[in-house]
Design brief:
The structure holds two protein chains of two kinds. Chain A is 74% helix and 0% strand. The chains are: A mainly alpha, B mainly alpha. At the A-B interface, helix 6, helix 7, helix 10 and helix 12 of A face helix 2, helix 7, helix 8, helix 12 and helix 13 of B.
């Protein structure tokens, strides 16, 4: 065993255990993905973002909320002292961007955590039971799909009141329908499998079958879809922030920072431009990675 | 071609099938629309803003408050309130805006042409550029041109539209002076064009007001190009994948064997087949521009539906917000239906099924 390298073990054509087969499959996916330059750039951006969020207090040279001297340090152009300049409250923009990565990651993570289970639950239930349950649930899904996403989120935030928590809830409420569609389609392909029939014969309840057997099989494709959606989630959150409906000042949310810098865009361009670059780079990262993942995992699109 | 179709339909009895499909489509749209109404109605009821206080003001006496409470029908059970809401919508009454003190329907009718004009010019730009570069990417698959189109598309998917708008204003308006700034038309021309269609490009052209026309063009150029770029990202990507599918078909091989010139195979044979699903894509991105226009209109102070919506939002004018949401949702559903119908009309295979 010791003379076989890890690589050979992973790429073995005759895996000895289920664990080896699974790791081997993941490793092959990784090899294909690694060859895709854009996907690697995307992965690099996302890893950087996560590290930035974790180590924000170590990276940021200044406080993101409390500004410097209002008389001398307001709206200073980018320099070595202030890498990205300062804003109208004399706050260091670089530090605010660094701390803002925490808000961006939190939005993405929470939306995924809220929307994925809803989509899975609705989709698998509709697909498994079929009949009128399917009709009702899918009709409901269609209704949510019928609204443009940002508009529905706007209406929800208007009803719930502005704030980052409500923005997250609103985005999650508008995000689940495509996942439900996908989970339903996956469920339809496995619903009539023999192993489902076998567990039914053993007396397993519908709940147990859906949760224990159907959902795990739908999970991977739904997760890929969520990854593909992350850039859209970031842009929607930033849009809400820009309209003053997401994170409230003085939180260093990137969209709200653009809105704040908009008032003096022409004289002090960096205040609005730099947070926009941050949003752009991060959502580009998610799009690059998602695009690469889709190429690897969906052979139809690779053609 | 039309006569051949009628013949085959008559023979196989496909016309009733087509009608049946249309009926099914319309029922499903009706259900979706009812759902839209339920959603907007419910959002309106969970609002923390007290609708009575919004009408009578917070210094009204208890009796005034109670009278308004009953007049607004808030004492009735929820389903009765919904029924009243439905009846109002059916008669074209979306309520009164608290901000402008006018009927919301009138408000929306006033601002809608601005949005229509902006998104129509946007989708034209997106289609005229997006389709050819999508075809190019498919023909040059895997080569440099394909990669450029791909990255261009991904950039379009990733950039916040409001930020690009601000950058555009900074560069093309403030620095270069190539285009006019925010707004639809300069104040100087505000009263020189009489509103006929509400679409300023058409109105000023009909009336021969060429100075005003040029002014309108220089105002619309930047925001419409932005929206155009965003729809281009989607349209070019879908064109590429449809074209790749078509170019792999056997009829293309046959045409090549026959000696049909390559440009004819690409632009006539394959593109005509790809055009059927493409129409759906274009209709959907036209609908999607309505969404993008909320942020774009805010950046460019464009007096359209999007700006009306955000203004109402910032002033907690819930009636107007829900009215606007409903109208946008309805247009969205309508365009979806239209794209489905177009698909049926354009693709004889779908029609016969």
């Amino acid at each position: 065993m010791s003379e076989i390298s890890t690589r050979d073990w992973l790429l073995s054509e005759t895996p000895a255990s289920r664990r080896q087969a699974r790791f081997g499959q993941a490793y092959r996916t990784w090899l294909v993905l690694k060859a895709n330059k854009l996907a690697m750039i995307g992965l690099f951006i996302i890893v950087t973002l996560i590290l930035m969020a974790i180590f924000a207090p170590l990276i940021a040279p200044y406080d993101p909320i409390r500004g410097g001297d209002l008389r001398t340090e307001r709206l200073v152009p980018p320099s070595w002292q202030h890498l990205f300049g300062t804003d109208d409250q004399a706050r260091d923009i670089f530090s605010r961007i660094v701390y803002g990565s925490r808000i961006t990651l939190m939005v993405v993570a929470l939306v995924a955590i809220i929307a994925t289970p809803i989509g899975l639950l609705v989709g698998t239930t509709a697909g498994y039971f079929g009949g009128w349950v399917d009709t009702v649930l899918m009709r409901l899904t269609d209704i949510f799909l019928a609204f443009p996403r940002l508009i529905l989120a706007l209406a929800f935030v208007a009803a719930l009141g502005p704030g980052i928590e409500n923005a997250i809830i609103a985005i999650a409420i508008t995000s689940w329908p495509p996942y439900a569609r996908l989970a339903r389609a996956e469920t339809l392909t496995i619903r009539d499998s023999d192993f489902i029939a076998a567990s039914k014969l053993q007396g397993a309840s519908s709940l147990r079958i859906i949760w224990g057997h159907v959902t795990p099989l739908c999970l991977s494709s739904v997760i890929i879809r969520v990854t593909l959606d992350m850039a859209g989630i970031i842009l929607t959150a930033a849009g809400l922030g820009f309209l003053g409906l997401g994170a409230q000042p003085p939180q260093p949310e990137w969209g709200a920072m653009i809105a704040a810098g908009r008032r003096f865009l022409i004289d002090f361009w960096w205040v609005a431009t730099i947070p926009g670059i941050a949003i752009f780079v991060v959502s580009l990262g998610f799009n690059f990675l998602g695009d690469g993942l889709r190429d690897v995992l969906d052979p139809k699109a690779r053609k | 071609m039309a006569s051949a179709d009628t013949n085959s339909e008559g023979r196989s009895g496909a016309l009733p099938a087509f009608l049946w499909k249309a009926v099914k489509l319309i029922t499903s749209v009706a259900f979706t629309f009812l759902g839209l109404l339920i959603v907007t109605f419910l959002i309106g009821r969970v609002v923390p803003v007290d609708p009575v206080l919004a009408v009578v003001g917070d210094r009204a006496s208890q009796s005034t408050y109670d009278a308004a409470y009953i007049a607004l029908g808030l004492d009735k059970p929820l389903w009765q309130q919904f029924w009243i809401y439905l009846q109002n919508i059916a008669t074209g009454d979306l309520g009164t805006s608290m901000l402008t003190k006018r009927d919301i329907v009138d408000d929306i009718a006033r601002v809608f042409p601005a949005t229509l004009e902006l998104s129509t010019v946007g989708i034209l730009i997106g289609t005229i550029i997006g389709v050819p570069i999508g075809v190019l990417a498919a023909v040059k698959q895997g080569r440099a041109a394909d990669q450029i189109v791909r990255v261009l598309g991904l950039v379009g998917y990733s950039a916040p539209i409001f930020w690009l708008g601000l950058l555009g204003l900074l560069i093309f308006y403030a620095q270069l002076g190539w285009v006019s700034g925010p707004g639809r038309i300069s104040i100087a021309y505000e009263y020189s064009v009489t509103r006929q269609t509400g679409l300023l490009l058409i109105d000023s052209a009909i009336q021969g007001q060429w100075a005003a026309f040029r002014n309108v063009v220089s105002h619309i150029a930047l925001p419409a190009s932005l929206l155009g770029y965003f729809s281009m990202a989607y349209i070019s990507r879908m064109t590429r994948s449809f074209m790749l599918h078509e170019l792999g078909q056997e009829y293309v091989v046959t045409a090549r064997v026959k000696g049909v010139p390559e440009w004819r195979i690409i632009w006539v044979h394959a593109l005509r087949n790809a055009a059927v699903p493409l129409v759906t894509v274009i209709a959907l991105s036209y609908a999607g521009l309505l969404e993008g226009s909320v942020l774009t209109e805010t950046v460019f102070a464009w007096p359209g539906l999007g700006q009306y919506l955000t203004n109402s939002l910032q002033n907690a004018d819930m009636n107007a917000v829900l009215g606007g949401t409903l109208v946008i949702g309805a247009i969205f559903v309508g365009l979806n239906l239209l794209s489905d119908l177009l698909y049926t009309v354009l693709d004889p295979r779908v029609r016969r099924r």
